[in-house]
Amino acid sequence: MLEQFLHLVRTRESVRQYLPDPVHPEQVERILEAARLAPSACNAQPWTFIVVNDPEIRNKLADATSNKLIGLNHFTKQAPVHIVVVMEPANLTSRIGSVVKQKHFPLIDIGIAAEHICLAAAAEGLGTCMIGWFHETTVRNVLSIPAKSRPVLIITLGWPANEQPREKRRKGLGDIVRYNQYQSG
Amino acid sequence: MLEQFLHLVRTRESVRQYLPDPVHPEQVERILEAARLAPSACNAQPWTFIVVNDPEIRNKLADATSNKLIGLNHFTKQAPVHIVVVMEPANLTSRIGSVVKQKHFPLIDIGIAAEHICLAAAAEGLGTCMIGWFHETTVRNVLSIPAKSRPVLIITLGWPANEQPREKRRKGLGDIVRYNQYQSG
To answer: What ipTM was assigned to the predicted interfaces of this complex?
Structure first.
């Protein structure tokens, strides 16, 4: 069964060209079910997912993620659905951990839940792209996100225009894996 | 195929009781292959994975994750393998993004890669537990991790002593999903 998961991992890629076909709301819900079940530090579940499928609001969001000057993320208007991953204040145990251990656990949690969304979508043949670079104030205003919460990622979702996955450029296992010590050998 | 992924997501849980049986090095490698293929901001791949299977070093690590006073993580000595997820400095594009957008993308990336490990392990019937709360200086010293790099998570890996997965305590979809606006309704 690991081979199936590895196949899914190889299938998932950042999709930047979408067909105009809609994504069924039931599909979106099933994909979000995968995010709902994601683990998080101290089970804080510090997240809200805003599904944006209203064309007007989606276009405003797309404007917040694209930059005409440097040509960034022009594709976002094509994607029929955007899922905005909002980071919420964590529960007390996780917050204490973040302070004492000086690492912000909710960011790790957000990565996990967002990847559950992307893998679940890939399992449906859908394409996604995680976008972390956007105009936060605009997104906050367009979606009325309160000050206590923070939009961290926008995930575009739709049917990929290209069916052939690209080859992944990654470091080799030898470059990233060590045994029993940081320095190998 | 989404059902298969949802099944995997439901299967994965934090395992805190392990059998003494060893995990095959080839299995560990295949699990790490899933982490190797994980996406990251600007494809920075800001990670090193230290596989600790030497009993003596593993016990020292386990001491860094358990706390006799408050009874935290006593189970870590049972797990035959620990995978220490080390965060590396990101590439330039990701670093600029982290500064300009004031969010530390490598922490998100670490969450994604760590969850690939846990899901891949679950697909093999193996149990994992992500631990973020440990004595960082001890871990750093035991594994000779240089100052530029940071151990963020320790994942215990082994055969679960209990085969029956627990029911997950999670918020409902209605509590975490909104449509087109942060405030529903």
So the answer is: 0.96
